[in-house]
Amino acid sequence: MAERINFGTLKSVIEPPDLIEIQLKSYADFLQKDVNPLRRKRQGLQAVFKEVFPIESYDGRYVLDFVKYELSEPKLGPLEALREGQTYSAPLHVTFRLKDGDEVREESVYMGEMPLMTLDGSFAINGAQRVIVSQLHRSPGICSEQDVHPNGTILYSMRIIPDRGSWVEIQFDTSNQLWVCVDRRRRRRKFLASTFLRALGYGTDEELLGLYYAFEKLETGKSGGDFENRVFKDDIIDVESKTVFARKYDPVTSDVLSRIREAGIKTVEVVNVSWDGGIFLTTVMSDKTHSADEALNDVYRKLRPGDPATPANARQLLRRLFFDPKRYDLGKVGRYKINQKLGLSGFAYRGYPVTFWDPFGELGHPLRATVTDMAPADTLQASLAQIKDLPVTLRLGEHREDDFRNTELVVASPAVPFESPYLKIATDSGVPVTSEICLFAERCPAKVVGITGSVGKSTSSAMTHHILDMAAKKGLGWWKRAWLGGNIGKSLLESLEVIGSDDIVVLELSSFQLEYLGQLGWSPHVAVLTNLAPNHLDRHGTFANYAAAKLNIVRRQDPAADHVIICDEDAPLREQIVALFGDLHLVWRYRVSKSGLPEVLREFADEPSPHDVTATWEGFQPPLPGRHNILNAAAGYAAGLALGLQKTSFAGLLDGFKGLPHRLEFVREVAGVRYYNDSKATTPEAARKAFESFDGNVVGIVGGYDKKIDLGEFGQLLVDR
After folding, report:
1. 531 and 590 in a common domain
2. What is residue 362's predicted lDDT score, i.e. its pLDDT?
3. SS3 assignment, position 169
4. pTM (2 decimals)?
5. Are strands 447-452 and 526-529 parallel, antiparallel or unpaired?
6. Burial (CB count <10 Å: 0-12, 13-18, 19+), residue 420
């Protein structure tokens, strides 16, 4: 570009900013062209594909999924495209994976040309320069409005606007009745708010009123008292004389109570409507539907006039409208604005995706939960004791299909595979399926260190947490506290209220949990892989499937900000990482040095670089026996370095670490024989490492269930030792 000559006398006070930088950066973030295809963030073009796929056939046999997209080099430069009347673009190839039963095929498909932005923030389209013009639109979220009716009545309304999906408007009329209309284009097809809530599962009047009002028992002999905003819950009738003292929802008065008392009735049930002065009760009293099925039929007739109305069709319609994340999504902005507008806090209202229920937080919507397990109650006493005070419905010894159809969300145990027929019922009905670890990962404000592997991940997780926790107490790191959870200890969901963005969380992650996290599209800030050996083949079928589940821990990382840590001594793990990333550049690798100390290295390129890292934990004292436990400590050493700890600041950070129960745990010494409990070694590889921790003869007491793993080498080890 030619140098600009300024003939003016005024001098610039500051350097003019790059006014098109935001355009260039925004489009670069949209394409993520220079990011490894398997490590792209879920944004822009990547998010578009992820929203659409996977596509599944009605019978579940065929599943078409998106794997990655690639942008080839453009055929013409921007100036050439303008000169020749062409478009400055790059060929877009998308790799899809088709699953046909047990057969899986991948193929790259040419999808067309993707326009590229020039360095001056414009596009060259058919030989002409074009620019993007920003456009304003209604922000997703929730907004309240008021209008004045011609008769002078002020009418209030509330509108829920999603980023994608149907708008919902809730409005009062001149009679103080609350109406709902779905989609502004169909305002005439409105129905009462109570009808809508019945259709969502609150079928009876008692369930509806219980959402917002309190039920009370009133003594008829009580003289005086404040009966304002109290109504009778049911008809009050003298059984013998058939005299009707009060009708359902009649206001409570002293005179009526006196006549009831004279009839010998000592207590009556009333509804306290002081919360809103009985406004919602007015809507319920005007509702002509009296059950969930009646409400479903009424809603369906309003939304789909002319089609036959059945409860099944109506449920499917509501699920498509509000419970399918592909059709209804508030988005990050909408979620934030609703939280801000309604003053919501706590884990149930953080992050997204969200369900349609929580906007009704403005009306005080509570949570209803069902706990279902095929095991009978007498085998679940310990678990049931933990939830005995919670308002949940128990379904034990069986699963009911309706429980999986007629709900907002299914939270499955990670041990339940996706192929479960009950999870299939839920997904076919449009009900999202998640797990406890996904709920936590979505809402955790702190950075996460995720640790997985076939052997030793529990001890590695505990050691890493101990190192980071001690570093926090000594003021060595930027974090205030370290937390431990995931597949070890208790759920951290209940601690979300106190976990802050200046904390660090260590999660042990099993292959089962990583399968669910892979569906979520989440990976931790620091991903540690300890080793990779066949395990849980009874669940995954093949080692390739098992390895694919484990590698979900790194698939959704940001390569510019996140860290991958692997054991440099595990050849199968190195091969998997090289196959995924192409090389081991920028990957933290840990091992045991020749002097028997934890050692970490990180290389930025094939040639030596001043940014390369090589660190050895000088003065390290093993807290547990066995070379594999030095490797476990090395994993924590690497995690600490990746998080910013200086390599000379680890002295004493493992002091006091006692190990975990049932993991090479010393029991006692009897008659010169030392006994160790290693019952958590549930694979041949884990048991082999335990044997190798001791010299001389070792007697093993082994057992367990069949994981479909070859036991030949381990059997020979038992004979040899």
Report:
1. yes
2. 35
3. strand
4. 0.53
5. parallel
6. middle
